[in-house]
Amino acid sequence: MPSARRVAILALLLLAAVASSGTDTRDVVRGVPRQAAGRPPGEPPMVPPPVVAPLPPLVPVGARTPTTIPAAPPGAPLPLPAIAAPATPAAALPSGAELLAVGSRKGQSIALINPATGAQLRRIDVGVPVVNLAAAPDGQTLWAFDDNPGEGDFQVVDLVKGERQGARRLRNGPRAAAFSSDGLRAFVALGGTNEAPPAPAALSFVNANGDEFGHVDIGRQVPGVQLRRQLSAVVTAAGQSGDAVYVAGRGSGAVWALDAGSGKLLAEIEVGGGPLALLADPPRRHVYAIADTTDELVEIDADTQRIVARVGLPGRPAAAAQVPGGPVYVVGPDEGELWVVVPDDPAPVQRIALGHEPVGVALSRDGSKVYVANRADGTVAVVDAATQRPTRTFAVGDDPTVVAVIGRPTATPAATTIPTPAAPTPTPTIVASATAAPAEGRPEEHLLPGMVSETFVPDAAFPVPMAFAPDQRLFYGERLTGKIRVVANGRLLPEPFYSFGVSDDPETGLLGIVLDPAFAQNHYVYAYYTQVQGGGAQSGGPNGSNQVVRLTDVGNKGTNLTRILRDLPSGPEHNAGTMRFGPDGKLYVSIGDCQCAGASQDLGTPSGKILRVNADGSIPPDNPFVNQPGKYPAVWAYGLRNPFSFDFHPVTHALFADENGPGDNDELNVVVRGGNYGWPPSGFQNQPGLIDPIAVMNPTIGPTGLTFYTGDQIPEWKNDLFYCDWHQGQLRRIRLAAGSFDRITSEEVVKLGCSVNVVTGPDGALYWSDPNGIYRIRRASAPALPAVAPDPTRATATATPALPAGTRAEDRDVDVTLSEWKLVPSRTRVPAGKIRLTAENVGVTPHALQIVGQGVDVSTPVFNRGEGREVDVDLPPGAYRLICPIPGHAAQGMAAELQVVGG
Prior knowledge:
Blueprint: H1 3-16, E1 35-36, E2 67-69, E3 82-83, E4 98-104, E5 109-113, E6 120-125, E7 132-135, E8 141-145, E9 153-158, E10 163-169, E11 174-179, E12 185-190, E13 202-207, E14 212-217, E15 225-227, E16 231-239, E17 242-249, E18 254-259, E19 265-270, E20 274-281, E21 286-292, E22 296-301, E23 307-312, E24 319-322, E25 328-332, E26 337-341, E27 350-353, E28 358-363, E29 369-374, E30 379-384, E31 389-395, E32 400-407, E33 451-457, E34 463-468, E35 474-478, E36 483-488, E37 491-492, E38 498-499, E39 510-515, H2 519-522, E40 524-532, E41 543-553, E42 558-568, E43 579-581, E44 587-591, E45 609-613, E46 635-637, E47 646-648, E48 655-659, E49 666-671, E50 695-697, E51 703-708, E52 721-725, E53 730-736, E54 744-752, E55 757-760, E56 766-770, E57 773-779, H3 794-797, E58 813-819, E59 822-825, E60 829-831, E61 833-841, E62 850-853, E63 856-859, E64 868-875, E65 878-883, E66 895-901
Parallel strand pairs: 2-27, 3-31, 58-61, 60-66
Antiparallel strand pairs: 1-23, 4-5, 4-32, 5-6, 7-8, 8-9, 9-10, 11-12, 12-13, 13-14, 15-50, 16-17, 17-18, 18-19, 20-21, 21-22, 22-23, 24-25, 25-26, 26-27, 28-29, 29-30, 30-31, 33-57, 34-35, 35-36, 36-37, 36-38, 39-40, 40-41, 41-42, 43-44, 44-45, 45-46, 47-48, 48-49, 49-50, 51-52, 52-53, 53-54, ...
């Protein structure tokens, strides 16, 4: 389209407020890249969202190259005079058509500006860092929001008096508001908190005074798991059945559409990235979501709640504004530009150079002027919408973050609030897709139709690390024996690949195995283990240091042991031990705080860190703390308590790690170079420089093995994240936001029993383990690796040896953890004589502990979650059974064997 003609059409759209034409253009798809709506191939929703059917795959449909309208060199300051008008004396604000409200984060204030002259009419101290504004439909009040996770209220400004009126108390971090079409109610997005546990994200229904009369929790949650929704934007739009409310979850990559009258969920729309702004466009019957990470404008049909198009933006967006029916204006702070997108128009995205880090944008009521808040120099730039050129700037004060156009009231009214509906009906609370298990039941499993779960290696001895070779052999490690075992062609090889002398303290032993990316050529196998004190070859006994070594596979035997990382710190617990080769070819290693919490923040030690080294153990020169005096050069990220496992996303290559928390929460983190994850003791407190988790598990579940599913056998799970948990014994599946894959949209329990590790097999099945074996989930009709048949002689061949001489007093102590539905002792063999068993209930239902065998039958009373009981008993040599005697619990897996040896 010729430039002059395009400018003319834009001017008509803006100045005449053109209504939509009779031609339905909602399915026109264009952009850079503009794509047909939907999800990437092979990514159906985890739980089909209400109303909306699965979307078709994204299909790129052509290039749309952004063009720049010359105004100033890219990123350069505007060559325009800045007007620094002093504030007028404190008096009633003059009447007029409209004014600007500019919020300041650093200044914790709102400046009221006359946009015609740039004069500052009033600066109102609101006492909070302002990041969002919402003008009430009465034209008399302005609501101001901050982003402090600990806050539970928002500020109300009286525009007639030009002063702060007070605060309205809600809860859970109010972030943004929108109003119903009749002005009788408002919808406030509650972003949640950073507390432990964090409060859930919700949409609050309030009257015009700001008083809540109902709320709706947003997003599906597995009981005990709080996903970080971070609701940040809300807008109302007319739909086929009345008003709908759209809420954006910046932390989840999703937008939720709800009925504005009842709060009923209409659709969960996975837009990808972090939707940070929402706009309603009634003439086109569209809602627009502006998403970071993917750097897109996502067009949503307001009648069907389906994504109909995506427009690629030139960079990272920060805010957006629109006069309905006109272009959408988006600011890009990194480029210092204002971008102009005309929906349903194949013309390129226009780029207007501004400089000064633009972060906020608003339009005049008639659409003729665009106001852009520039953080870097404390100004607002005025852009002529018809010519798309900046005309002037004026100073507004320090750190402007948001700008809004509001109607200036003409007089003080008799009543400054809109009446509340006579009898507002409390809105229903949305029920999560997965509900808590009943006291005597087990949580629901979510296996897909046609899938089976079966045993792959029976009677495995506490298999923690697992790794498949290119030739389909499985290498796995026995935590307590220190043996690496090999499974080949459906047979567990009788001789171990290698045996280490390992500690048998509660969280020590053979903890990690990884194969070299070039294993087919060099046959390298890497192992992480906690050696026994003194470095002996006999397994069992107190912990020595952690070691990372490399072996060479020669005929199913480990040879040529080479030290990679020597004498890493260790503790009886919190040793982590997962190893992965990253997409960059470097070896990443997790190590816990080794029960020394302060070490996690100490950059001079590897404890509480994720390490990154070359395959031979040398230090990559681009590590974040290399060549810094007093800092351990292998550190990649720190502030971690016990990062049991991690994996790299197969598309984005981002590193995802789980985290075993203390008594209040576990975490799932996206780990970045040099990142500090806050242990200890900050946890979820709002402190500068700490990186928040993307999910919190509360009460603790003890997340263990973690992997991305990369097989082709189950396309519905492609690129989904799976992890096991120790306390509940569940295999959990996480769906990440489409396109960006950096935020969680939903989670579910797939299978009960997984408590140790999970990996994708070369046959496309998903393999997982518990202390007694290795199992898999696969399609019944798909080819699979041959499973290992049970060996009837194995029990005799692996009879537990007697404890070595020099048994310590603490070897007679057994800690027993009880949860749904597991019973796990800290030791499986003890010396005969006086034994002390300490039981702890970390589950959600009552439990008890019973010891049976050799004529002994002793039981504790029933005790509840968070409680413990202790039993002292004399046990002669022999086999004993530890069970939970509550009816049905032992049958559901709450049982373990205890071998008493010696005399």
